[in-house]
Amino acid sequence: MKEIKPKVTLVGAGPGDPDLITLKGIRAIASADVILYDALVNESLLEYASKDCTKIYVGKRAERLSTSQDHINQLLVDYALTHGHVVRLKGGDPFVFGRGGEELDFVRQFDIETAVVPGISSSVGLTGLQQIPLTYRGISESFWVITGSTSDGRLSNDLYTAIQTNATVVVLMGFSKLREIVALYQSEGKGNLPIALIQNGSLPNERVVLGRIDSIIQDAERSLVGVPAIIVLGEVVAKHQEFEAVKLELASIQNV
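RESULT FIELD:
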């Protein structure tokens, strides 16, 4: 009978494209006895698992019924104790708004071995794929990655601070707050600031909307962009190779 060695490994699956997972992440999947995977994980990654591996969907989406975090925490422990190696496969990076830290805190209470395989966060991965530099000499000296809303549904206080700087701001899980974010930037006199919306980034059905704060709501509605999407705000967005075309289009509309 196989000896059970409880272990939980958090694995970042990257922003969507299965080719963006690390080799170490693939090896962890291949060695798993159980995989608990999220909604934003590309399910083709499960093909790397062994034929005997138990695969359990525990996806969470704001607009859909979801598995509670407390239940997921308990599943990690239960399966580790009864099956052995549990891989918690999470979209992006486990420690960038992935609640990976909370999961490790819970698992460690039971003296279970833990490990982490970092993943490419959508904040740096999707902007990189779009060739939008998060930092650029003379334009942006830093970048902020901020959640779209806090647990009580409010805009993060960090956004109010970040808007006072020239930093690039990447908002994750914030598309439903786009109107509030736009209003905030307009109140600070930043209506002309470049902004990008990236939906389903890195995937075949990706949609990208480029514009400025004052026009992005209309642009988003016209492009039918929606969740899941990240929001990128800052002068660096103008470095996107198609941004000049957007400016020319806006100028022609205004001159009509």
